[in-house]
Amino acid sequence: MPSSMLIHDRRLAGNPPGDMADNTYEVDENIPITHALGWIAEYSRRSGGLSDLYVMCHGYEGTLDLRHLTCVNEEHGGFGLQLCDEGLSLANATLTAVLRGKVTKITIFSCATADTAPYNKDTEADGMRFCGEIALWTRAEVIAAVETQKYNRRRTIWQWLTFSNRAGAIDFGAWEGPVYSFTPADPGGRKILSSPKGETNFLQVPETAITGGFTVEVRAGDPDKSSLSGIAKAQYGDFNLWPLIFDLNKGKIGPNPNRIGPGAKLLLLPIDRYTPAELADARRRAPAWSKYPH
């Protein structure tokens, strides 16, 4: 009997829901994407196939016009997924061929995965083509959204009272914006849901309302507000906690933590919302800033 799997990149804050799939596989920036895809393929083989593969991670959004090599005044998605070490994008979508015939449906819970700005069509930021390529390489149906997705981190009353599951279980609630289905027979995509942008329900209250988050506006020339490490030092008292801010604001910052635009409003959570393990993980990852261009 086919099984199901949820792959969760830990940089998407919160714990994966425990009742969504038969198996949960957690990854981070230390896991090569080829290793993760290989393990999914192996699990599928052992389980007699996967009826569903759920993907929970950040989706890259940005202000780049790749066709004209310039920046624009609006954000669009389609730049790929923050999944494992290298990420998954149109540039390496062929790697998903290892899942060919092993998965029936892939549902991507990520921001603006299927988005394609008009000026980025047929570039590496063509999200519609990215999803279609995955469908062609895996021979699976791919479900993905065009708009930025909001999610909540849920805790039971008992967990609140016992101070357990402090990270909360990820709950995306209803989809926001149009959702498309991509299949090998129709890799161009077919709209299957048309939710108005910004529509929310009780499962989609913005995270700031649930956790008491706050925003900091990036300001050039201000050492406390011009870089992620400076903001981390000013707000948390520790330069090395910048990955906490980076993880929460992937959609606004993009793939490079060293390049944040003045005027961007970044979401932060009070430090007491993080577990000791989450703080330790952020400090462990802090030296990674040197890998990115300045």
In words, what does this structure look like?
The chain contains eight helices and 15 strands. With 294 residues, it is an alpha/beta fold. It has two domains: 3-204, no CATH class; 212-286. The protein has a seven-stranded mixed β-sheet with strand order 2-1-3-8-9-12-13, covered by helices on one side.
Unreliable spans = 196-211
Order of helices and strands: EEHEEEEEEHEEHEEEHEHHHEH
**Spatial separation of the terminal alpha carbons:** 50 Å
Give the overall shape, derived from the CA principal axes: globular
Spatial order of the strands forming the largest sheet: 2-1-3-8-9-12-13
Report the helical percentage.
10-25%
Q: Strand share of the residues? A: 15-25%
| Computed structural class | alpha/beta
Spatial extent as radius of gyration:
19 Å
Tally of separate helices: 8
Features:
single chain, 294 residues, alpha/beta, 2 domains, 7-stranded mixed sheet, two-stranded antiparallel ribbon, 8 helices, 15 strands, 23% helix
